[in-house]
Amino acid sequence: MLGSYGESNMITPNIDNLAQHSIQFQNAFVQQALCGPSRVSFLTSRRPDTTRLYDFYSYWRDSAGNFTTLPQLFKNNGYHTVSVGKVFHPGKSSNFTDDFPYSWSVPAYHPSTLKYKDAKVCPGQDGCLHRNLVCPVTISDMPRGTLPDLQSTEFAIKALRDFSSKPRTLFFLAVGFYKPHIPLKYPKEYLVVHST
């Protein structure tokens, strides 16, 4: 929950400010209960009953048809298309390529620290590190001193700067964060404790 939706324990001033100047939806719906099929549905503008993708174990271009994706439409019309993080579901459901070269001008970027997602980095009361599902962490203590979503953000910012230095370049940048999937490791400075 967010402050803009009435959650008093959450301090979300930037999103709350955005919400004051935006249309705020009260209900959210997805096309499928799993993120992989929902991502394909969103990116192809086809419902899961058309893509026939209901799991993570089949590539939609093989199982349903060679649909044009949103980034592919941009790419086919002269845009440089870049995927950062989890846009298509990685693995078999995107042909182990995140749908490159169909949708993307270059291979998709995935943060190198993703391989540490199950690492024991959560400090416990016993003084040992554990593999908790949710825990605040000190970023500098993380493998390679960062987290996957922070790496994706840095990559996306660099890509935007690179594109903006080329004024005639048309680009489509898709950035997908791995959160809210577990494990939820987040910077300690994001943890705010209220005293009531």
Task: Describe what you observe in this structure.
The chain is an alpha/beta fold and 196 residues long. The protein has helices at residues 13-20, 35-44, 48-51, 60-63, 70-76, 148-164; strands at residues 80-85, 122-123, 129-130, 134-137, 171-176, 184-187. It has a domain at 66-190. Strands 1-5 form a two-stranded parallel ribbon. Strands 2-3 form a two-stranded antiparallel ribbon. It is globular, with a radius of gyration of 19 Å. The protein starts with 12 loop residues before the first helix and ends in a 9-residue tail after the last strand. InterPro entries: Alkaline_phosphatase_core_sf, Sulfatase_CS, Sulfatase_N. GO terms for molecular function: iduronate-2-sulfatase activity; metal ion binding.
Roughly what percent helix? 25-40%
Tell me the series of helices and strands, N- to C-terminal.
HHHHHEEEEHEE
Strand content: 5-15%
Low-confidence stretches: none
Shape, principal axes of CA atoms: globular
Q: Which class do the helix and strand fractions yield? A: alpha/beta
Count of helix runs: 6
Largest sheet: 2 strands, parallel
Number of DSSP E strands: 6
Mean pLDDT: 90
**What is the CA-based Rg, rounded?**
19 Å
The N- to C-terminal Cα distance equals 19 Å
Strand order of the main beta sheet, please? 1-5
Organism: Dreissena polymorpha
Family: Belongs to the sulfatase family.
GO molecular function: iduronate-2-sulfatase activity; metal ion binding
Domain Sulfatase N-terminal: 2-191
